Amino acid sequence: MASAARENDPLFQPYQLKHLILRNRLMSTAHEPNYSENGLPGERYRLYHVEKAKGGLALTMTAGSAIVSQDSPPSFGNLHAYKDEIVPALRQLVDQCHDHDCAVMIQITHLGRRTGWNHGDWLPVLAPSPIREPAHRSFPKEIEDWDIDRIVADYASAAARMQAAGLDGIEIEAYGHLLDGFWSPATNIRDDNYGGNLDNRLRFTYLVLDAMRKSVGPDFIIGFRMAADEAWSEGFGAETGMEIIRRLKATGQIDFLNIIRGHIDQDAALSKVIPISGMASAPHLDFSGNIRANTKLPVFHAAKIDDIATARHAIAEGKLDMVGMTRAHIADPYIATKTRAGRETEIRPCVGATYCLDRIYEG
Predict the structure, then answer these.
(1) Given the DSSP bridges, would you call strands 256-261 and 221-229 parallel, antiparallel or unpaired?
(2) Total count of domains within the chain
(3) How far is CA 173 from its chain centroid?
(4) What pLDDT digit, counting tens, does each position of 126-178 carry?
(5) Distance (Å, rounded) from C-alpha 332 to C-alpha 346?
(6) CB-CB contact of 272 with 230 (8 Å)
(7) DSSP three-state, residue 206
(8) Under a CB-based contact definition with an 8 Å cutoff, are residues 354 and 277 in contact?
(9) Looking at residue 289, which CATH number applies to its domain?
C-alpha cells in the first residue's frame, strides 16, 4: 500500500468515544490469559498488554473478566476487582500502555453460575434461578435480596477501584454470567420482582448501572459486552436483544456496546461465539452492523476477524466503530505497526486453532 493510501486507511482513522480519542480502530477485546498472581496483574500480565500497546493497538481490554465479589469464585485466573491491592498493580499496567498511546479498559463481572464452587473461597455459586450450567456443572443457589444488595454494592466499589487505577473505562460482562442471567428465560424462572416481564428481568441491571454511575460519575466510560441474540430456543432472540439494548440506551448510562451472538453454556455453543479453524470468517459482523445502524450506539465486536482485509471492511462499511482482533493479536501483537508500514504480508496469521484458549485450562 502506498504511503498516501495508508494515510486514508479506514483502520487508522482516530475514533472519539466521549472524551477518549483512540488512535486507530484496532482493539483487543477482553480475555483472560491466566497470567494473574493471587488475583492481581503481575509482571507477566502487565508485559502481555504492554507488548500489544507497543505494536500499535489503540485499545487493549484487560481481564476476561475481573470479578467484583468474593462469592464469584475465579474460574480461569480472573483478576480480583474486589481487592484494594489491584489498584496500584493496574495503575502500573495502565501507565505503561499509555506511554505507547494505547488506551486501557477492563471487563468486570460476577460470574454467576459460570464457575465452580470449589475455587477461591469455596463459597456457594449464585444464579437468578437454581439452573445448572452444563459447562461448569455447579448447582447454583437462587440469589436472594440480600445477595443482590451486596453484589450491587460490589459492582460500585469495583468501578471506583478501576477509576482510581487510571483505566480509561469499564466494560460490564453480560453473556452467560450473573447480570444477563436475569435477562434470559433459559436461566430466570423467578416469579418475584426480578422475573417475568422484561422490566423485572432488567431490574438488577438497572440497580448495578445506577450504583456504578453514582460511584464513578457521568463522564467515566461504561459499556456492555453482551449477547444481543442468544441464538437458542431456550433463551432470547434478536428482537428481545434489540429491546434490551433500547432500554439500556434509554437510561443514558452506557457509552458503547461490544456485541456477541450466541450462548456459552456448552462447548459446542461456545464454538459459534468464538469460531474455530475451518469455520466461517466474521460470522456475526453483519448482525453487529445492524445493531449499530438501528441503535446509533458505538459498537465494538470480535468474532474470527483475523485478517486486515476483513477488519478494514468492517470499518469502511460502517459496521463497527472498533474492530476486535483478539486472537490475531495473540498470534502477532504488531499487526498495526506492520500494516501502517505496508508490511501486511509479514503479519503472523491466527489460524483459529484455539490453542490460546485451551492453554488457560491446563494445570
Answers:
(1) parallel
(2) 1
(3) 5
(4) 999 999 988 878 889 999 999 999 999 999 999 999 999 999 999 999 999 99
(5) 10
(6) no
(7) helix
(8) yes
(9) 3.20.20.70
